[in-house]
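Today's session is about reading a structure prediction critically. Students often jump straight to the picture, but the first step is always the sequence itself: look for stretches that repeat, for charged clusters, for runs of hydrophobic residues. Only then move on to the predicted structure, which in these notes is written as discrete structure tokens rather than atom positions. Here is the chain we will use throughout the hour.
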Amino acid sequence: MKRLLQNFLIILSLVLLFSHCAKKGRPSGGPKDTIPPVILKSTPENFSTHFNSEEIRIYFDEYIKLKDLQQNLIVSPPLDYQPIVTPATSAKILKIRIVDTLKENTTYAFNFGKSIVDNNEENEFDYYKYVFSTGDYIDSLTINGSVQDIVLPKLDKKVTVMLYEFTEEFNDSIIFSEKPTYVGTTKEKDPSFELSNLKEGNYILLALQEEVNNYTFEPKKDKIAFIAEPIQLPTDSSFVLQLFKETPDYKIGRASHVGKNKITFGFEGPVDSLLIEPLFELPEDYKVKILRDPKKDSLNYWFQPPFDIDKIDTLQFLTKNLGQLDTLVVKMRDLYVDSLQVSLFGGSTIIPRDSIKFELSTPLYSVHAERFEVLDNDSIQLPAEVFLDEKNNWATLYFPKKDEQLYKVNVLPEAVFDFFGNTNDTLTYSFRTKPLSDYGTINFMIEPLREFPVIVELVDQKFQVIASDYLTENRGVYFDYLNPNKYYLRMVYDRNKNKKWDTGNYLRKLQPEEIIYYPTEIEIRANWSLNETFKLE
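Below is the predicted structure for this chain, in token form.
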């Protein structure tokens, strides 16, 4: 018993001794790992020739995983069947199993972008590229350049750059159905590109910003940029590609009876010259008013008198536009009459030069200025003018205004009449102008302008036009009553002189009209005047 007690005391003393000697505190994990994975070897070796393997293995010094592989992996030339790439979770070996038939005497490049990361800290192995040739040598030519979005100051996402071999078999429609000979991509937040491991020859160079990554051009979804003439490799030239969205070619859509006196005609593309002709016997006193829908691609065909659907259940129309003729059949339905509704277009805070616009739900026929009553803050009636804007279906009211004032507008009965003889009830609106000190101004010169006319636009951060000016000579541009905010300044060379920007078209080899952005964002402050010089390179 005594011996047992002695042994217990000895053990207890040792435990207490070591517990006092131990360092207190939490154990440290060491510095954060910031080193990307390292490749130990590849089988077959990178840049192999006479390649005939079905699987490639790349060995790393640590566990890796694949992140956003579908968005990053670029195989050039493109394969009909994508390779099977593993691991699905993590491993030290990256496997590429090729399930497609490779072309003879061809150099292939697998660019992994930023998809290879280590398993723990996700350190990226940036833009790793595995290259091999099924022939005797690796093609080594390159081409480089940059891609610019013609409408935006910078790219909002990556762009695929493509080369199609220009042979006797090539025609312009190939890009709609066949994959390119070579493919590459711009990098994140970087408009530059480089395509490498190319062979000598003539090529068509283009770029696509695709909604679906299938390497073929879908005009309704994708943006495109192209160099019109074939390029020859090798070359020392660097290329700038201007990315734009095409306006679709004209196409008439369905015609639908949507109201007792209203038929809508859907369409795509330009319809400025579209004619709609009835192919039926017209009732006595038949009248028509055609207006473009402001919210969608359709024309509203208003008519009177209405048809008796018990006697006429279908109508036929002939449409004519750009030399194209189409016949449309409309199934008539028993529907309600559209009622007249008058609403304010825009907000209640206005600036002194603003006009006030009222939009109608049915076609506007006439306006009567004496039925618009405008009162200032002291209830003094102000002189007012009213205009009928048939194109936009607006009644436009203008009256003299001052800064920092309140105004009241009474729209009295019979102020407006619509196409069907309906009129409005009494409507009352309140408006205000803010003090001039709440706004900023910008005054600038553009130099040197090489041609005219030029459209100058100030756009907000959503690229909506806030103010614009049209220059036919070199003079200063002044924008006032600007709300404090950040803006972009841009100019358009209006080469066809139609006072608007026009996009391009690939098949017609038409480039978009040039847009040049001021190099930096512009900040407008309240009660502040900004003077700038827009220097063009």
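Discussion point for the tutorial: The radius of gyration is 34 Å.
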